Fold:
Amino acid sequence: MRENEPSLRPIGVFDSGTGGLTVVRALRDLLPHEDIFYIGDTARLPYGGKSKSTIERYSIEISGLLLAESSKMIVVACNTSSSLAVSKLQELLKVPVVGVIAPGARAAVKETRNGHVGVIGTRSTIQSEAYERAIQALNPDVRVTSQACPLLVPLVEEAWLDEEVTREVLHRYLDPVVGAGIDTLVLGCTHYPLLAPLIEEVAGPGIRLVDSAKNCAVAVKQTLMEWSLDNVKETPGKLNVALTDSSNSFLATAKQVLRLDIDSLETRIVQGVTLLETAL
Ligand code: DGL
Structure:
């Protein structure tokens, strides 16, 4: 096989910060031989309250950096970017682009027994109604109750994963959603899988959690096979991480909680739109 064989190139993954490493964890588990190049846009985090045009611009710029690393596909490991920018990226790029919304919606529709799904996410994700649209396109009879949870990302970034204050905040957000009668809850933000044990406790035993990271990994595997881009080598894949700011205190937590081995950690400066001469 030639060195520049497309299937040997890395999967490019991005998020607004290091929360998207939850998607990397899921990719590692499902596709252990794939190389991954991850970019966290820590210089411009959070994305969660920003407008569609800004999120689209940021997502195009970060995808450009990933394509400069010869990425064979782009995984949008950020619910906010997935809600607001995936269709733009799919329109512009020649490589496959997979986000977290469609896989999460598919899993929620499969999981619900009573046809009532809850979705939690950042303000921008919830305001975009992307999950509602994706769920109702699959099954118009499924009801969706959504809740923006803007305080959860800072709590996770502080690594307050099992604190009383986090439990209280979760009750404030989740009690009305659970009270509305959902039986399934989509964790519609990259940071939330780290809170899954506490969310499970607060939501109560009748609620099934849908982790968009795990479902995204399944979609990535399928897409690689459809495009004949799956890497058939036997050696463990490498994980290279680049951040757009040199400091990020959450990286240590993410590494520790997710048990990820990072082969290299670099800084990349975003210098505007550099892509569109896409490879492959
Ligand atoms: N990565 C974002 C998401 O999944 C959460 C953090 C942010 O607001 O940037 O929506």
About this structure: The beta strands are 11-15, 36-40, 73-76, 97-98, 116-121, 143-148, 184-188, 208-211, 239-243, 264-267.
